[in-house]
Structures are given as structure tokens and as C-alpha cells.
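Regression test attached.
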Amino acid sequence: MTHDEQHLDTTPLNEWLKGRHALTGLAPDWDLGAIPDDPRTLFATWLRAAAADRVPEPHTVTLATVDADGLPDARTLILKRIDERGWAFASTRSSRKGAQLAASPAAALNFWWQPQVRAVRVRGRVEEATREESAADLAARSPAARAEVADGDWVLWRIVPTRIEFWQGSRDRRHTRVIFDAAAGGWSRTIVGGRADLTSEDGAT
Ligand SMILES: Cc1cc2nc3c(=O)[nH]c(=O)nc-3n(C[C@H](O)[C@H](O)[C@H](O)COP(=O)(O)O)c2cc1C
């Protein structure tokens, strides 16, 4: 630590932070009476809506993992695909996240689409895709990006979700959350907050 850092006065920064506002975007209409049974359908709708509203790079996402000691880590990644098995991202096996996923194959994703006051959380165990899928993902990258990767190091992983939360903020602070929990043969769904005609824990199927 340098002399300057030891004497860093963070008071102005903290004053500035105190004056910041959040949740200043404009939430789209959300019909809570028409929530699909499959969270991937709702996610696809929200992702498309974010893109249509020109949310910058709505497919970028924070990925959280834990290391062998249980210490969390997080970084930004690109969402590569979403299919019947889960949400996929790609990186190198030799990276920190690669080591963390080998030691503890579970992760969480967090999307935040500020202009729409929307966030999505996905968590679950992580599975490695087949070698063919990882190779296909690598092949789709630019030659320059491919050149940086050692043979066999590129991996596509999937989060197989056990819980997915859709959150939408509201100017009147009646924020809404729709939570999907994996249940036998499908999903159980809980709506928290939101519309005045819904109770605070209005469980649906
Ligand atoms: C917008 C954005 C997208 C990124 N996409 C990826 C990605 O798809 N795969 C990847 O390995 N790193 C990506 N990175 C870099 C990661 O954030 C991270 O720095 C890197 O993967 C090393 O992480 P690790 O040390 O936790 O393994 C991206 C960074 C940003 C800011």
C-alpha cells in the first residue's frame, strides 16, 4: 500500500454515493396473469424485450462461482446459449473459474437490464457440455479469439438451474419478483410483491 492510499479520504466519494439514485429506468408492462410455465420462455421474452429496447449488450452477465475454500468469485461473461438443459457460457478450463468449477460445479448468473429496471438470477449445478459442443462454440469465435486458446482448453458449461428469479422494479417501490423453483417434473412458481391485487406471497402452480 502506498503512502497516498493509506491516507485516502473516501468521505467525498461516500457523499457522492449517498446522493446517487437507482432504479431510474422505465419498467415495461408485465402481465402477471400470463406468466409462462417454463422460465426459459419468460427469459427469452425478457431478453428479446431488452434487445428491442436497445439495452446495451443484454447478453452479458455476471457469473458467480466458489473456490475450493468456499470463497465466492464473480466476473462478467457472455451468455452463449439457452436450451432445454440450461444457460450456457464458455471460457477456458485453465482459468480461475475453470479451476473453481472443477472444485465446485455450481454457479449463479445475474443479469441487470438497467433501462428496464429488470434483473434475472439463475442458480444451479454446472455441467460441462460435450467436447463437440465446446469445439463448435470455439469454432464460432473469431480467428483472433481462437488463436488465444490452447488446444482442448475451451469449454462450454451449462448451469442446470434449480431456481430462477425474475425481478422488476417499480417507481412506487412495489417491486415484483417471480421465482421459479425446480420441482418434480417441472417448476413451482411464486409471485412476490407487485400488483395491489396480488398478496405479498401469492403462490401459483
Ligand atoms: C463484457 C465482457 C464479456 C466477457 N466475456 C467473457 C466470456 O464469454 N468468456 C470468458 O472467459 N471471459 C469473458 N470476459 C472476461 C471475464 O470477465 C474474466 O475477466 C475472465 O474470464 C477471467 O475470469 P476468471 O479469472 O474468473 O476465470 C468478459 C468480460 C467482459 C467485461
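Expected vs. actual: identical. DSSP finds six helices and ten strands in the chain.
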